[in-house]
Each structure stands twice: as structure tokens, then as C-alpha cells.
Amino acid sequence: MRRNRIATLLMAVVALIGTVLLMPAGTASAAGPCDAAPRWVAGTWYPTGTVVRYTDGHYYIAEHDNPGYDPVISTWYWDPYTCQGGGTPGAFPVSEAQFQQMFPDRNAFYTYNGLVSALRAYPGFATTGSEQVRRQEAAAFLANVAHETGGLVHIVEQNTANYPHYCDRNQPYGCPAGQAAYYGRGPLQLSWNFNYKAAGDALGLDLLHNPSLVQSDAAVSWKTALWYWNTQRGPGTMTPHDAVVGGHGFGETIRSINGAMECNGRNPAQVQSRVDSYRRFTAILGVAPGGNLTC
After folding, report:
1. Domain assignment present for 52
2. How much is the pTM?
3. Which intervals of the chain form a coiled coil (predicted)?
4. Which residues, in sequence order, are bridge partners of residue 62?
């Protein structure tokens, strides 16, 4: 009787091993934590380490036990979670709900979907380095955007007296759209004819002849801001992207964007405005702001 039981057990083990070996490639490994992640429900108890799928489709992991606090609001209890083996690896570390929290009074022109769509043009943005660095870069970019646009309220530069100043006639291509056509537009207020040309060349658009695209097409508008952030040093010594990824601090992003007007004590109030936004946004994203915040 005992031998029969042992024989039966051995046959079952052999059958199980055979089943695993015959499984199609990719199905033998266990599902990732996001594959089985439940939808977040307010009022449900979540122990530390629980991964949930929020209402906007993004994933969060409980950093502390909590009775169903909102992951977007209660950032001490929850952290954004990048899925491995499931979900969306490399996703933009700012959810739509967090974006709305950052910019409650934003102009309808500046859509979250427009921003996410524009990210494809610069895949290294907010996806390079550790999770902390990725969130810091997203916060740094959006903090400078907040300052430049009054909280994503303004699409174009408000001081119209400056408009004629942004035409550098020394450039061989001149200002074909007109003397006053290259004023500040978009999330980082792209200005000057040479910047419109360079951004247009990089993005495959004729912004030199049609600069108004930056104020009429949300995706183009976001792309020009990402172009500057990821590729231009401005008055600084590095791109804003490199400043964050290289650990040089938020202050160096200010220097690269408007350092000639604000840094080295020239306009401390403007610098502080940017820093205040950065601190607020890093708090929303649940990440430390790091050092070297001013320039």
C-alpha cells in the first residue's frame, strides 16, 4: 500500500515537471506584481508592499500600512510604482491626477495627453536614472514650466513690448515671419528667431516661417519645451536634463533657462518662485528635492 502511494506521488511529480517543460515560452514565469494588482478602492486596508492600480491606470505601492488613503494625495503612504513584467515600464512618473493637482487653474490648451504624447520625441526625459532621479526631473521640468507660464495659464508672453526684440537680424535666415513674430510661447516660453529655427529643425517643423504653431498645437508646444530642456544649455554650462540626471541640482536648471537674468543674485525673487514650485511638486511626487536648489 505504501509503495503504491509512493509510486503515485512520483508519477504526479513527473507529470507536473512535464507540464512545466511543455508550457509555451513566456508563460512559465510567475506573473509580475502589476499583473495581479487590484484596483485601488478608498477605505480598503492596504498593508505595506501592496501594489494597486489607481483610477488613472498608473500603479502605486504602499510604503506604509494605510486604510485606503488616496495614492495621489497621501504621498507619505504611497509611492508611484514602475512595473516589471507587467504594467508600463518607463512610464512618465506624473499621473494625470497629480498633473491636475500641480496645475489646478491651467489653461485647457495645456493637456496632459499633449504632454505625454510629446514625450515620445525625447524618450530619455524622466526615464533616466533611479526612480528618485526620474521623479526629480519631472518635478524640475514642471516647476520651471509653472514659473514661465503662471501655472500653465499663459500660452504666450504677456509683455507685448518685448515682442520686437526677439528678432536677431544677424542670422542669415533673418525673421521671415516678421520682426515681432518670435515672442515667448509655450511651456518654457520659446523665444528668438534662432531658437524657433533650431527647435523646428530638430522636430521636423518649419517654426521659423510658422512660429504660431507653438501656440496653436498643444503637442508641438510641449515638444519645444522638451527640446530646450533636453538639448539646450542656454546661459548655463549644461542642459537642464543633464543638470538633474548628473546630480547638479535644481539650481542649474534655472541657470540654463534664464540664468543671465536671474542667477548670481540678479533676481532672487524669481529664483525663489521656481524653487517653491519645485519643492511643492517633489512633495506631490513623494520624492526629496535634493540639494543645490538655487543659482
Report:
1. no
2. 0.71
3. none
4. 78
